[in-house]
Structure formats: structure tokens, C-alpha cells
Write a structure and sequence with these properties.
The protein has 143 residues and is an alpha/beta fold. It has a single domain, classed as Nucleotidyltransferase, domain 5. 48% of the residues lie in helices and 24% in strands. The chain has a five-stranded mixed sheet with strand order 3-2-1-4-5, with helices on both faces. Helix 3 packs across helix 4. The radius of gyration is 15 Å and the shape is globular.
Length: 143
């Protein structure tokens, strides 16, 4: 089976997580700085090939009322860029409260703010992927 890649998009850094081949668990891939369009294209081409990714899930920044947040336009453009460059399906996934969950986890572990921001993006990507996989599992088990 192929894997699912989850992305937490930030203006400077993106957090990454990938599923196992059976698409049951999420594993961290760390955070990566965004570069030029060509650097990003090379990075993602290598990543998608290495992990045999068949689907990309990107955190969709919604406000609590369900309306798109401030970053939604940038995320949508990035999702379209991924589709155009790699031809893979891209799902925008509700990421409400995932950043807060990640911040709480970092505080509990007493991780310093400077290091924490990069880790936060990775944790959010893991949370996005975990919720996506849980929903996928529920959908597959419902007749």
C-alpha cells in the first residue's frame, strides 16, 4: 500500500508527518523550511517518491465558526501548487484546535519556545494525519 503525507503549512516552515504503508499510524518527518519554488519542488519530489505517497492532507485553517481563517488563502494556493506539480490528490483537512493541542504537549514536556515552534509544526502535522486516519477508518467500517 501507499502512504499519506500530512502537512501543517506555515509561512516559513512546514510540519510533516507520514502514515505507515497500511495507513494506520502517523509518523513524524520533522519540520522543513520553505524555500524557492524550485527548492520546494525538488524537496517534495524526493519526499513523495521516497515514501510512495498517494495522497496529501493539508491542515485547513478554519475559525471556530467554520469560516476560513487568515492563512486559508495561502494554504489553498499551496495545495493547488502541489496538485499542479505532482498530480496527487490533495485534501484540505480541518485543523481547528490542533495548534493549541501541540502547544499544550510542548508545555507539558517543557520544550523551549525557539525549538518548540519547529516541533509544533511537526506535532500539528501528526495530529492532522491521526484525525484523518481515524475518520478514514470510520468511513471504511460504516456500511
Amino acid at each position: 500500500m501507499t502512504r499519506i503525507l500530512a502537512i501543517d503549512y506555515g509561512e516559513k516552515w512546514i510540519g510533516l508527518a507520514v502514515s505507515d504503508p497500511l495507513q494506520l499510524t502517523a509518523q513524524p518527518l520533522g519540520s522543513h523550511p520553505l524555500g524557492s519554488e524550485e527548492e520546494n519542488r525538488l524537496f517534495f519530489a524526493d519526499l513523495l517518491k521516497k515514501y510512495e505517497v498517494s495522497l496529501i492532507v493539508i491542515g485547513w485553517p478554519l475559525r471556530m465558526n467554520g469560516q476560513p481563517g487568515n492563512q486559508a488563502n495561502l494554504v489553498q494556493k499551496f495545495a493547488q501548487w502541489l496538485k499542479n506539480n505532482f498530480g496527487l490528490p490533495v485534501v484540505l483537512w480541518d485543523e481547528r484546535l490542533t495548534t493549541r493541542q501541540a502547544q499544550v504537549l510542548l508545555q507539558e514536556q517543557k520544550i523551549k519556545a525557539i525549538k518548540g515552534k519547529k516541533i509544533e509544526h511537526t506535532l500539528v502535522a501528526i495530529l492532522i494525519l491521526e484525525t484523518f486516519l481515524e475518520r478514514k477508518k470510520l468511513d471504511e467500517s460504516t456500511p
